[in-house]
Each structure stands twice: as C-alpha cells, then as structure tokens.
Amino acid sequence: MQADTAGAAESEYADDAIWREAHVSALWRSTVAHREKMAEPAHIWRWRQMEPLIDRAIEATGMAAAERRVLNLANPCFSSGDTTTRNLTGGLQVLLPGEAARPHRHSMNALRFVMQGSGAVTVVDGRRCAMEEGDFLLTPGGCWHEHRHEGQGRIVWFDALDVPLHRHLGTADFQHGPAPARSEMPGDEVCVVPNVVPEGLPPADHSPVFRYPWAWVKQALQFAPFAADGSRRVRYVNPLTGGPVMSLIDCSVMELEPGRPTLPVRSSAESIGVVVEGEGRSRIGDDVLEWREKDILTLPKGVWITHDAAARSRLFLVSDREILRRLGLLSEKIDGETAGTNGGEAQ
Question: 267: which of 5, 57, 243, 332 fits an S-S bond (Cβ 3.0–4.6 Å)?
Fold first, then answer.
C-alpha cells in the first residue's frame, strides 16, 4: 500500500511538471475555488496620529514637486500601498494658502470630503466648486479637475477613488493637463430646488451637481426617519435619476443617537467611514473600534457591524455598493433578516 501511494505521488509530481510546461493546472487538485475566504479585519486611522503626519507631509514636499500632496490610507490587509478596501482607495490631501494642484483627469471616479479648513476651490470641467468644511465634491471619471487654495490656513480633505477596481480591470488611465477650453456649463444651482430638475442637461452617468454643501446634509438629517438598523441615513443622489452620484461609487451620511445602538448589519459591500462629528464605538465582526471626530475606519464585507454613539455622531460613508448592485451581487442583511439582495435597495 505504501508503495502504491508513493508511486501515485511520483506520478502526480511528474504530471505537475508537464502541466506547468504547458501552462495549465489541474482544477481537481486545487482547493482555492472552494476555500471560504476570511473577512478582512477592520482598520482605523486615528486623527491624532494622522494630523502630525500631515504636518510632516507639508515639510517633506511642496506642490511644485508633487502632483498631489496625499497620504494614502494603506490597509495592512492588502499588499498594495494605496488600497484601503478591496475596490476603493482613500487618502488625506492637504493644500496651503496660495498652493494649487495641477489639472489632470483619469478614468477613475474620485470624490472629496472636506475635513478641516475652507477657502479652496476645486475646478471640475471648468466649473468652480467652493470647498468648505463638511462639503462633498465629485470629480467623476473623465472630468478635468484641479484644486486651488485661495483662503487662509491649511485645508485637508478626504479623497476616495475606485482605483483598485480599475487596476484589476485594466482600465486605469491618467492624462495630465492643461485642460482644454470648455464652453460655460450650468452651475449646481440648476438642481437646488427640491423635486424639480431642468430639462436639457447633457446626459452623463454621474450627477450634474459637483458640490453638495454640508448645510444640505444637516437639513436633510433633521427630517430623516430612522432607518431599519436604527440610524438616520441620507444618501447623496443624482437629482436627475435618484441613483448614486457616480456610476460605481455610493455615498451617504449616517447619524447615530446616543443610547440607541444600531441593529447588526452585514453586507457584501465594503465602506470607508469618516467621523464628521461625535464619538462612539463600532463592533465589526470580532473587533471593537473606538472612534472620535475625524477618525477614518473601514467597514469590511461579510461581518456583522453595529454602532454605538457616546454623543450624537455623524459619519460620512463611501461604498462600493453600487458596483455589486449593478453586477447582481449585492446582499445586505439586518439583524439576521434579509434587507436587500441581488440588486435590492436596502439603505
């Protein structure tokens, strides 16, 4: 019996060499396709640690030498130094008064959420968008954009892009400026009247609104009912379609009340959360993360997640949910009951 076993092993090794030479592999000998993948642990970048690093980044490079002064949020779960979740890259970008980041465009969708400071502008396809604390700005894939700081004091914002997805698909493309001259575009004000939108706007797979002020969000949260998990949630939408602001990225704000922990939620989508206000803790699978204002944390897929605020708290959330919804792979559950699967609209 031992001789038979040894002979079979030698035959398999010989076959391995033959298959490698022919660049094929034996599926029946692989366990990768059937192995259950473990969920990545959550990770948090604490502002008290990030703020000194932002100061060092300012000392380390000026804008004349840098395309962008950005600290990428490199999740230790992934080998790439600019991957924050499986499909999203997050970062902290900083400008000083008088500085500018040169124009460029890329196939990747990008967004900005202002965490500290004011007085800067982002120019998107020729449209000037003010940047004030709490504002959310779009720079959709293919749109020319640049940043200028025309105010006082430094400004820091959170960047998020779908870079890892484009890298995996082989669709990542980048083009330096200068941006071509463009005819004047309608401003964001054409869509500021609730429930009324103009006709004749050019078709696009992103919102015609490039800047969503924080004041809009606070007003919307005042009237938002409690969601199924016990939080209040408002979603940034394309006013022409009611869908996400960009074709592959979904963004929202979650408000948590003290003494009202959320019900457990599990999703096949992953999110990055920026703590805009407040403090509290989140149980993410087996991990418990304490967080406070300006901390940034990941919310991995496939684990039960609950939030418990010590004071009224608001978190800005960016998610790859829309990618999975479009592919029919979205699955979301609340407290063990299915809330939305395969394209469902659970919030």
Answer: 332
